[in-house]
Amino acid sequence: MDKYKIIIACFCFFLVGNISAAEHQVKMLSSLKGQMMVFDPPVLTIQPGDTVKWLATNPGHNTASINEMIPEGGPAWTGQMNEELTIKFNKEGIYGYKCTPHYILGMVGLIVVGDKSSNIDKSIKFAEEEQTKFATNKNRFTDYFSQIK
What we know:
Layout: H1 2-20, E1 23-32, E2 35-40, E3 43-46, E4 51-55, E5 64-65, E6 85-88, E7 93-98, E8 108-113, H2 120-131, H3 140-146
Helix pairs in contact: 2-3
């Protein structure tokens, strides 16, 4: 009898863990409200265990992690062009990501998973240097980080 109670308890913990996790969506867009080459939303705050699904809303975009802006042990990813991609985030911290062909135009985004302190300083430093190389939207990272401080 005790064996069955243990199995049922494990099953319940599994269900509760999966029920509490959320899926968030980010659209990959060529324009939105006068801004060109954007993710919507560009800054997303989620909890550990949540997933993010990038939607191929407009053609010609992808999502890829900026490896210098992910916490140690966090997932790195590179989606294909026009691919809808879902990533699960268990490791807390800041995740920077980009659209590979439009990175030079400042098509970037941030995901904050739980406690952002593990890599926020490193991410801000990298972003400040990197955004000076953008052809347009040169303050996009600065604007996005100001939303999460």
